[in-house]
Amino acid sequence: MEKVMVKGTEAIGEAAIRAGCRHFFGYPITPQSELPEYMSKRLPEVDGVFLQTESEVATVNMLYGAACTGTRVMTSTSSPGFSLMMEGVSYMACAQLPAVFVNVVRGGPGLGDIQPAQGDYWQATKGGGHGDYKLIVLAPATVQEAVDLTVLAFDLADKYRTPTLILADGLLGQMMEPVEFPEFRDLSTLPDHSSWAMTGAKGRKPHIITSFDIDPYILEKMNLELVKKYREIEKNEVRWEEFKTEDADIVITAFGTVARIAKSVVEMARKDGLKVGLFRPITVWPFPYEPLKKLAEKVDLFFDVEMNMGQMLEDVKLAIGGEKPVAFYSRMGGVVPTPNEIYEALKKEFGRRE
Amino acid sequence: MSKNFVFIGLFGSGKTEVAINYSIFLRKKYEKVAIADVDIISPYFRTRDVVDLLEKKGIKVITPPGVLKYADLPIVSGAVAGFLQNKDYKTVLDVGGEENGVVVVGYLKPYLEDAEISLVINTRRPFTSDVEGIIKTYEQLSKIAKLKISYLINNTNLSNETTKEIILEGEEIVSKASEVLEVPVKFTVVPSFISDINTKFPQFKIERFMKMEF
Question: ipTM surpassing 0.85, yes or no?
Fold first, then answer.
């Protein structure tokens, strides 16, 4: 495949189509409206369906319906829009329906602004909707990775019969980079969902898909089935990247766009002779607790950087378990930290502890 | 030489980079040059983000006023029409992408009598990768701009991975589209880090302004 120049939002859209997604329902919201716009042009070209819904609540319920048939379906939105979808996401998790959600996070809380932020980490990884459920949450840091993780999001959704989430931010959504797309997936090779999906009950017992049981003992069984699945996912699907951690005294922890900025910080520090590395969760759920814990054995100081008040910070501390100090630097409100300011903050923190 | 210069195109075709560089090019020849950011579509990576840099070069930058520059609202400052009519100024319009962005051009039509409209094309972008796509884009956008497009611009690039071959491959496609549409090619954009390239059309050297530090 030859390389093309695409925005993060378009990259996710095209990757979804290549992964075999033929259904997209969505409602526009900055900074991700190019994604539905792209799908509205592209899906008719591949005999797919694009529908602009009347609201995010309608969107998530259309996803529920489409996913019941076993087809690959997606939507994308930005922070306040994802909050509106929460009830339906919880229903889909309970009904074990595969679908891919994209949240291109912007400044919050509330209406916030339209600049990039990471304030939806807790919502994405700790629930957000009601009840005991988890989403597989993938956090890309480059446009190429947005492509690769979108394909993975569909495959994992199918494999575990669960909604998955691409947690991006406005900067990744809007930036343009050269990428290579995978080949088109042959639709006939997609996973077979005939054992549970609504495919027409002629000649067989009807399938029932529901997120409800009035008998608490049966609902508890459903809960336990979900828990078992989540344990499986925690065992098999943890993904992370380590950059120059082999000899590092200080390790920056960051995800998404900030991890990308942190890479520049690592290079700056290395030039000055400081042994700095980067630990970047790719799956923010399941979070890479074990590899981070292992890293803590040989690192003196962790430096967590996020565009929020310190959300992933809690998971970083859980992983490290109080053995090593964890410093924190953040910008909020849609302000993106520069490599320089992060480096200055890191040096100050390091100096204080020397 | 026309009085006003309008750059239109699809999302991410490079309109803003070309418009900024063109205003700098004009400033070398003319005392009074203005660039108006009438992008009502993009939330980030807009001319308004490099105001200080352009004003240092003596170019007047017209953007939505005050904090409204952080919005993606359909704001077109009244000053835009003023600068388009002001005979002392060469004025460049940086227009938003796609049909919805180009609506602004239709709105400003009364002030665009002496203007050249250029369609910026990157053949490594979705929807303009071949002659057919360029023709479709040309037709869609000229219908909405309500004006005839004067030139095509070959801005084929892969950002910092651009090579001579990629530029020339784009030139070939844009050249064919130009023949079918009977619209001339104004220039081929060449990034400053590429030298020693022979192009069919005049070369326009550009610096990149919408870049990130990481």
Answer: yes
